[in-house]
Specification:
Layout: E1 6-8, E2 15-16, E3 30-32, E4 37-41, E5 54-56, E6 61-64, E7 78-80, E8 85-88, E9 102-104, E10 109-112, E11 128-130, E12 135-139, E13 152-154, E14 159-163, E15 176-178, E16 183-185, E17 200-202, E18 209-210, E19 224-226, E20 231-235, E21 255-257, H1 266-310, H2 312-346
Parallel strand pairs: 1-3, 2-4, 3-5, 4-6, 5-7, 6-8, 7-9, 8-10, 9-11, 10-12, 11-13, 12-14, 13-15, 14-16, 15-17, 17-19, 18-20, 20-21
Helix pairs in contact: 1-2
């Protein structure tokens, strides 16, 4: 079939080996063999004239190494070989596939470290990198943080060690970051709060320590978070969406405290007592304020009115004073009005 451009035979019950003659289909652009029962090695005889852009052989029983000849496929954009039995390392020859946008090699038996070309200029277009459930070792390479278009980074269930690189905050478009089930140590970098597009953050089942950074509350799109089974300490940040998740995502951190965990922080009891004392003091102050107002009114009222009621001579003098004052005010007003009328007449 020399003119065939797309071959879809996925999700069947096909078995046996994949014939090497597939590599001779010069016009083939899409090869989808996923979810079958193919076994043996993947074809090794790819050539430079191939126009293939998508290779999907996921969910089979393929074994052996990922062919180095696949590095010849300069037009390859999507490579999915996940959930097979591929071993050894990721071939360095794949750095020649400079338009790669998606690499999924999860669920195999790959080992070694992540090659330096992933994160280099030849792989700058990567949007998805899934290497989960393999046997990769070493540190998480800092060059991965150069992948400015990366939306999904899944390195979970491997043997990575060391600290999470600070540069990871540069992955501002990343929506899924899964580093769970490794041997990572150190603190959760506060710069993760700069990854404003994060919807999923899974750092569970590592050896991370220190406090949960307050900056995580700025991840407003975060819908899935898991920090369980680490060595995190201190209070879960107050007043943030980190307290809206279920307590299970914090379990396995014996020194972590605060809501939604049932474990109270050491300062909580002291804070409760202080607030209670302050509340009592405020209540007492308020009560004495009203008492003093009432007493002041009573003393002032009866100090004047009571005296007038008891002493007749004072009462007459008081009302005579009011009467005289009223007459003086009335006279002053009449004089002012008369003078004003005279001035208007002269005008």
């Amino acid at each position: 079939m020399p003119k065939l451009e797309e071959l879809y035979i996925s999700e069947n019950h096909l078995n046996g080996t994949i014939p090497p003659s597939i590599c001779n289909m010069q016009n083939l652009t899409i090869l989808s063999l996923r979810s079958n029962h193919f076994s043996g090695e993947f074809p090794h005889t790819w050539s430079s004239w191939s126009q293939i852009t998508i290779v999907d052989a996921a969910y089979n029983n393929l074994s052996g190494n990922i062919p180095t000849s696949m590095g010849i496929l300069s037009s390859l954009e999507i490579l999915k070989l996940n959930n097979n039995n591929f071993g050894d390392k990721i071939p360095d020859s794949l750095h020649n596939c400079y338009v790669l946008k998606s690499i999924d090699l999860g669920g195999n038996k790959l080992s070694g470290s992540i090659p330096p070309w992933i994160g280099g200029s030849n792989a700058s277009m990567l949007c998805m990198l899934r290497l989960r459930s393999n046997f990769f070792t070493g540190h998480i390479p800092r060059q991965l943080c150069n992948l400015g278009y990366l939306h999904i980074l899944d390195l979970s269930h491997n043997n990575f060690s060391g600290e999470i690189p600070q540069e990871i905050g540069g992955l501002t478009l990343c929506g899924t970051l899964n580093l769970s089930r490794n041997h990572l140590t150190g603190n959760i970098p506060s710069i993760v709060g700069n990854m404003h597009g994060l919807e999923t953050l899974d750092l569970s089942n590592n050896r991370l320590s220190g406090q949960i950074p307050q900056t995580l509350e700025s991840l407003t799109f975060l819908s899935h978070l898991n920090l369980a089974n680490n060595n995190l300490v201190g209070r879960i940040p107050l007043g943030s969406q980190l307290q809206t998740f279920t307590s299970s995502i914090y379990m396995g951190n014996p020194s972590l405290c605060g809501f939604p965990l049932p474990t109270k922080c050491p300062a909580d009891d002291a804070l409760t007592i202080t607030n209670a004392k302050r509340s009592n003091e405020d209540g007492n102050d308020e009560m004495w304020f009203y008492v003093s107002m009432v007493l002041g009114f009573i003393i002032g009222f009866w100090g004047v009115c009571g005296t007038l009621l008891v002493k007749k001579s004072w009462r007459y003098a008081y009302f005579r004073f009011l009467e005289d004052t009223k007459d003086k005010v009335t006279l002053a007003i009449e004089l002012k009005v008369t003078r004003l009328q005279r001035k208007l007449c002269h005008v």
